[in-house]
């Protein structure tokens, strides 16, 4: 294995890096004043995602400031339903809104015919980032897991209980499978195109996996992401994939053993010793600092970082959060986090 290979890629091949690589979910975002300045130049959030010069700049901002080991493409999981033809918009302070899909007949309005044309600006952003990133910084592309994206498409936005989407899946699983199958196909094509544009690692965010009991989680989360991984690997067998099935609990073990991905992102609830003993031998683990510890800072942050590193740092591991960074996070606390990770050594 080349010692000059990027640290994140080495970790995803099963190598233990001391100190481990670090990047943060939503590392480019509203907690940074330079992001807010760029955001003001865009008409709306989707415009920011689809304007390569702005998306490149926002992606690079945390790399310049903190020197993370990876940059993650600045985009959103809902660009896929947008590219399929569903109306998507973002309301300030209220999050994403979609014209809800409520009857299977409405699925006929969605088509993959314009998928790559609509997403061409995203691919251009990746091409530019591939040229502009520092040599040691890996480039991560991403998409949403089919269940999580479907839940937004059906509910019309986020939800407290996902009642409409889950009830549909329970009452008419064959219909629901058609929606999931469309998302498996479109997401696979999207991720393969991201690799061809320069992405070196892919992450699948299934942020709402934890709302399902075990049978539903397996059918609507694990099986679809495993099929996406399979399709990506047919096209690009050497590109590592990280899964983030937030809330999967003990079923993290099934994702580690059955999905075919190299990495597994842990949410904040996963016990560290259990993860080390039951998961780390099968996959590279990523996570799982509570984002609110980054808001709090101080001794609580220092102690939590040390606990994560002391428990998981002696195996294949990537330091990250257990969910996305919050807008209230002081940038200096992120700087403190990076310094703690960089200084860590086993037994020190």
Mind explaining what this structure looks like?
With 348 residues, the protein is an alpha/beta fold. It contains 16 helices and nine strands. It has one domain (7-343): TIM Barrel, CATH 3.20.20. The strands form two sheets. It has a seven-stranded parallel sheet. A two-stranded antiparallel ribbon has the order 2-3. A hairpin with a 3-residue loop joins strand 2 and strand 3. Helix 2 packs antiparallel against helix 4, helix 8 crosses helix 9 and helix 8 packs across helix 10. The protein starts with 6 loop residues before the first helix and ends in a 5-residue tail after the last helix. The mean pLDDT is 97.
Mean pLDDT: 97
Q: How much helix, percentage-wise, in residues?
A: 40-55%
CATH architecture: Alpha-Beta Barrel
Widest sheet: strand ordering: 1-4-5-6-7-8-9
Low-confidence stretches: none
Describe the global form: globular
CATH topology: TIM Barrel
How large a portion of the residues is in β-strands, by DSSP E?
5-15%
Specify the oligomeric state: single chain
* CATH class placement: Alpha Beta
Total individual domains:
1
Radius of gyration of CA atoms, rounded to a whole number = 19 Å
User: Can you count the beta strands?
Assistant: 9
Structural class: alpha/beta
SS field, number of helical segments: 16
The main pleated sheet reads as: 7 strands, parallel
Run of helices and strands: HHHHEHEEHHEHHHEHEHEHEHHEH
Terminal Cα separation, in Å? 27 Å
């Amino acid at each position: 294995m080349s010692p000059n290979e990027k640290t994140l890629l080495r970790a995803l091949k099963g190598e233990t890096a001391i100190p481990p690589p670090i990047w943060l979910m939503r590392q480019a975002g509203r907690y940074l004043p330079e992001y807010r300045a760029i955001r003001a130049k865009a008409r709306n959030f989707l415009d920011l995602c689809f304007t390569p010069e702005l998306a490149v700049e926002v992606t690079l901002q945390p790399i310049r400031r903190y020197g993370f080991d990876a940059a993650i493409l600045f985009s959103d999981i809902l660009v896929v339903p947008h590219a399929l033809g569903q109306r998507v918009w973002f309301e300030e302070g209220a999050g994403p809104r979609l014209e809800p899909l409520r009857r299977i007949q409405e699925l006929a309005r969605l088509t993959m015919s314009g998928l790559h044309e609509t997403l061409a600006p995203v691919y251009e952003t990746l091409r530019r980032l591939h040229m502009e990133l520092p040599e040691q910084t890996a480039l991560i592309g991403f998409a949403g897991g089919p269940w999580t994206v479907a839940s937004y498409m059906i509910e019309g936005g986020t939800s407290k209980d996902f009642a409409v989407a889950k009830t549909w899946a329970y009452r008419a699983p064959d219909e629901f499978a058609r929606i999931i199958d469309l998302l498996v196909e479109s997401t696979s094509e999207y991720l393969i195109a991201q690799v061809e544009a320069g992405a070196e690692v892919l992450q699948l965010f299934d942020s709402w996996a934890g709302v399902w009991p075990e049978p539903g989680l397996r059918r609507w989360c694990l099986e679809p992401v495993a099929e996406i991984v399979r399709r990506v690997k047919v096209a690009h067998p050497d590109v590592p994939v990280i899964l983030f099935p937030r809330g999967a609990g003990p079923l993290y073990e099934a994702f580690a053993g059955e999905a075919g991905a190299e990495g597994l992102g842990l949410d904040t609830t996963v016990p560290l010793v259990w993860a080390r003993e039951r998961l780390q031998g099968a996959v590279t683990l990523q996570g799982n600092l509570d984002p609110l510890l980054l808001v709090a800072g101080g001794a609580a942050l220092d102690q939590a970082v040390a606990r994560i590193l002391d428990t998981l740092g002696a195996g294949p591991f990537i330091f990250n959060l257990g969910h996305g960074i919050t807008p209230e996070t002081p940038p200096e606390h992120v700087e403190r986090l990076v310094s703690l990770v960089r200084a860590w050594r086993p037994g020190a």
